[in-house]
Design brief:
This protein has about 130 residues and is α+β, with helices and mostly antiparallel strands. The protein has two helices and six strands, in the order ββαββββα. The protein has a six-stranded antiparallel β-barrel with strand order 1-2-5-4-3-6. Magnesium ion binds next to loops.
Length: about 130
Amino acid sequence: QILPYRFEGEVVRGFGRGGKELGCPTANMDDSVIQNLPESLQVGVYYGTAILEGEKYSMAMSIGWNPQYQNEKKTVEIHLIDYAGGDFYGKRLSAVIIGFIREMKSFGSLGELKSAIAKDIEVARRETVDQNKL
Ligand code: ADP
Ligand code: MG
């Protein structure tokens, strides 16, 4: 069993699309994180915990295929739950993926996507209440 899976990397710029407009900014991780991902970690949405500048957060995270690179390159994107600060591009982030939430899918409308994300965040929040899991 591959989970929990621990990694650390740098927050890089994505294409600035989808995250903040959806009310769900996602910190995109650098290529070293993506290259080291075990094959068995399938594309999908996960929950876990992450540390940024010494502070621990619950996270909802996606592993996906990047449409900007003809779906040939993966992306790892992390939403820090209850983080209220500003942008943190270039900072290091360490994280533990604890569990799988759902597979990736495309949604019929923006509203459906937004409610799926809200549910993902609730699952992540609930499943990480036990902070000893980190
Ligand atoms: P990008 O395409 O550059 O990843 P996003 O719209 O997804 O743009 O926004 C991500 C950026 O927003 C992160 O890199 C980070 O600097 C900032 N940010 C602010 N709040 C959060 C949060 N709660 N979770 C993740 N990133 C956040
Ligand atoms: Mg992003």
